[in-house]
Amino acid sequence: MPCWDTYKLSSLCKLMAVVRLNLQDSLRSLVQDSLTSLTQLLLDACHSLLTCPQDLVWGNDLITSPYQPKKDPVFVFVLQKMFIHDVEWLETVNVWEPEVKELRKKISNCLACDMYSAMNEKLHKKPKRIEELAEKREWMKQIPEELKNLKELVNKTMSDYEMLEELFYNLTNEDFNQKCTTIWWPQRIMNNMETVVTQHVEDEERFRKIQLADQDSFEERLDSLQMLVAGFAKNVDIERARELSNKIQHISKQVKECQTMAQTYNTRERLFGMPATNYDRVHKLIKDCQPFDDLWKTTSDWLYWHERWLNDPLSSIDPEQLECTVKDALKTVHTCVEHFKDIPDCQEVATFIRKKIEDFLPYVPILQGLRNPGMRSRHWEMLSERIQMEVEPKANWTFSHCLELGLQNYMDDVAYVAEVSGKEHSIEQALEKMEQEWLPVVFDVLPHKETQTYILKSPDGVSQLLNDHIVMTQNLSVPQFKTAFEGRINTWESKLHMTRDVLKEWLMCQSSWLNLKPAFSSDEINRQLPVEARTFKKMDGIWRRLMKTAFDNRKVMELCPDAVLFAKLRLCNKLLGQVQKGFSDYLATSGGSIPTL
């Protein structure tokens, strides 16, 4: 070992020793810091989980858990298997080193003492309501079992103390106090439970008195609300419809709150062991309040919408919303008329509003017709011509202007023009939808073996879409409504038919080319059939240019509706037919075989 002995005496060996010591010191510091961070994380987690309910179900997403550490620790990976020639190069922290044992001890103590402390803290927490008191009593029934489970954990820790005593190790004051506290916690908690049980009896009596006082106030509140609801039988001023609507809605909200409170009081009565109070009057109050709410809300809304429909710009009216609003309002006030038979004043209001709605009802088809989304300038001209009156809508044009013009006298004409515009609008939307569906449709153009050109992958989806759209386009050609779009329909139908014809010729051409290309790649066939070889070469040049165009632009509806492309494909098929005939005759006479590509 002369070389190794020489190395050990060299400056390099000393330098490497210093480097190793520095690396090991850094590694130990990192691992110790990591263990300290881990310990603090566990301590924080134990503390935050002390209030964790027993029936908590842990999900898969622990990242968003409500039990988060105070800070996110950065853990350092402990390097392992750092050896050179089976000799350990760097040492990390040993699991039995004093610092590591101290951290482990902190965690063990935390798991026991903190849980005892949290249990005691929860035990002394004063309930604010009878519900909390009942919940706490149920929890206290589980304390003996929890103490039993904790005792098993504590016994494991006590065994460590016993071992230290056998070795005559003197505990520090802090450790000794911690040990004593842990031992006496269970008895302390049991003693505290007796005090808390006595306190609970006083708390229950206090909550009972509060409950009785609250129920007395609740009865007074119900009396007040009942009087307010009954007072609406005399409120019949339609000019105050908005005010009355807001008022009755506010009362209705309070009545529903009373319903929730009644349920709460009955629940608490069961907890107190008291007979449940009958709160049927709350349900009756809700039933009495609802018709007034319906009447004044519908009246207020109708007056508001009627004003808007008459005086707002016609372009701002939603015809579907208008129809629904009118139908719902008419249905509601009809119910109100039936309900208020014993309250003539309210029935009179409902009857008045119903008459207003029924008078407006015939105008709904006119408004829907004028607001048809398909109405264009040509339709307004058509309407003007039919009624012999100039009708030219402007930005500020309102339904009141329409009534002033007397359009209500031409309902049939408005309905007819609206029907025409609607049908034409449907045709326009169908054409636009078909055009949009073709935008993402492309050919799948693939390189073909070693031929330096391309072929089309079987376009079954394209063929199916073509057939569907051809049928749809033919269905759009309704003579009565297609006039405005006749040119566009014919153009689109021509594009579809041209695309179908081009695709048919293309696939036929590709099939023949694939069959003949192997044969005319043979020098022997080219010598035997010089005329057919020249014809195939001519066709092959056209084919390659076509496929290069298809590869550069694969969008079907941009590529295929082209008469020039159709003519070239037909020429290719014609040339291939000539080549196929000559080649077939050659095979029949010579009995030769077809080369493969």
Key features?
20 helices, 72% helix, Butyryl-CoA Dehydrogenase, subunit A, domain 3, mainly alpha, flat
Separate helix tally: 20
Report the end-to-end length measured between terminal Cα atoms: 70 Å
Radius of gyration: 46 Å
Q: What structural class is derived from the secondary structure elements?
A: mainly alpha
Q: Overall pLDDT, averaged?
A: 82
Shape call: flat
Q: What are the segments in which pLDDT stays under 50 over at least 5 consecutive residues?
A: 73-89
Major β-sheet profile? 2 strands, antiparallel
> How many DSSP E strands?
4
Biggest β-sheet: strands ordered side by side in the sheet = 1-2
H and E string: HHEEHHHHHHHHHHHHEEHHHHHH
Instruction: Summarize the amount of helix as a percent range.
Output: over 70%
Classify the beta-strand content into a percent band.
Answer: under 5%
